[in-house]
Amino acid sequence: MSEFLREISRRDLLAGSAAAASGLLAAGLRAEQGPAIRRRASPNEKLNIAVVGAGGRGADDLQGVSTENILALCDCDFRNAAESFKRFPEAKRYQDWRKMLEAEQNHLDAVVVATPDHNHAIISIHAMKLGKHVYCEKPLAHSIWEARQMARAAAENKVATQMGTQGHAFEGTRQAVEVIRSGAIGEVRELHVWTDRPKGWWPQGVPRPSDTQPVPDGLDWDVWLGPAPYRPYNSIYVPFKWRGRWDFGTGAIGDMGIHNLDTAFWALELAAPTRVEIKDCSPATDSPEMQESAPLWAILELHFPARGDKPPVKMTWYDGGKLPPQDLLMGEPVPAHDGGSLVIGSKGTLLTRTWHGGENKKDWFVLLPRRQFEGYGPPAPTLPRVKTAQGQSGHHQEWIAACKGQGKPLSNFAYASVLTESLLLGNVALRAGKTIEWDPDNMRAAGYPQADPFIRPRFREGWAL
């Protein structure tokens, strides 16, 4: 075993140490690993980029960064990455991201992480500790502790980071943020955010399969599992059927909540909620199915604290096809597919449709009641707009520019970690089966230590951060 891979295994033995418990492990690892290996790219030079999870969502990310040099493609499931390999035949191919980082660390500038949720943190943090810029798909991490460690590693290693919330760079999103901050809808104390997922995308409210199947050729099951507890391979998990399983994914709130809450969270400068309540869900939180996976549907209430002179905000979250009361939309059709949000102020309401519509459609959001806002003109821009090459994703290009020393990605890990933590608290409540009173300073559910494993999970031997 190489020194690089041995070091990852050694760190697993340190995971229970006082340094790890106090959150100092990341700083210690930075010193142990030696100087970060950073290749400086000029603004006119192409970045050398590797994509981990090159099939599936990674294939779309590849398009977003295709203006640069794709140095390496990594996917533990070669079957799923076949099309990406074909598109970039010159890129080096790997099944194990650890071997890729070890082999390419002197040449890489940046890494895109597009794996299942449970592998986001371990790959991203190891890349950042090597001085590599990181673009990581949403949600930022599988657990709250991991999200915080990712933000910390980004700050300590001074790398450019971006979470894959493409809508964050869209014209419609940035204009909506400016409208809310201008005071056009008044003081905001209430939010409603929803999605129709999982709705056929992946199974939820289901038990764990009992049968064992042979691992197919082309899949490295050990690398796919990564830090998750070991379980036998079953085709029910891959590809992209894992998101509803607690060991691997974060359910609908981690998938679409990150997108659909983003506008309001950003505009209102929210912090993590202080309380999360389960209003209803199916199946019941004490059912055997809920030990394995997220519910078929849920309605949650998240209570965000006041920020300076900004009032507290109550947010109701709906998934699995549940929707907010119709009267709140004032006659507008409910954006059911993928969902939307309602930002309710003292002077009016801002309705956002699914984030997909925000790129080029300036009517992506609607101010209600419509008659009251006839003739309304949005405020002058205060947020930077993203310049893109034709056919390229502005969100990726914003990150690429930052990797070359130009500007700052606005969905960076400092911002993304708090958004992710806020929503993952919904899953903590669901798994605990009770209301969570959140103590952010100690990263604990106050008075309920039984929730600790849902906040900071135990990692499989050899796969600690």
Q: What is the β-strand count?
A: 15
Helix fraction, binned, reads: 25-40%
How far the N terminus sits from the C terminus, by CA atoms, comes to 18 Å
Which stretches are poorly predicted, pLDDT < 50 over at least 5 residues? 1-35
Strand content: 15-25%
Reported CATH architecture of the domain at 168-203 and 246-394: 2-Layer Sandwich
Tell me the overall shape: globular
CATH class of the domain at 168-203 and 246-394: Alpha Beta
Give the strand order, joined by hyphens, for the main sheet.
13-12-11-7-10-9-8-14-15
Explain how this protein is built.
The structure is a single chain. The protein has 465 residues and is α/β, with parallel strands linked by helices. The chain has a domain at 168-203 and 246-394: Dihydrodipicolinate Reductase, domain 2 (2-Layer Sandwich), CATH 3.30.360. Helix content is 31%, strand content 16%. The protein contains 15 helices and 15 strands. It has helices at 3-14, 18-21, 25-33, 57-64, 82-87, 97-104, 120-129, 144-157, 171-181, 221-225, 251-268, 288-292, 394-403, 413-432, 452-455, and strands at 48-52, 69-74, 92-94, 110-113, 133-136, 161-163, 188-194, 275-282, 297-304, 313-318, 340-345, 349-352, 365-368, 436-439, 444-445. The strands form 2 sheets. The chain has a 9-stranded mixed β-sheet with strand order 13-12-11-7-10-9-8-14-15. Strand 4 (110-113), helix 7 (120-129) and strand 5 (133-136) form a beta-alpha-beta unit. The longest helix has 20 residues, at 413-432. The radius of gyration is 22 Å and the shape is globular. The two termini are 18 Å apart.
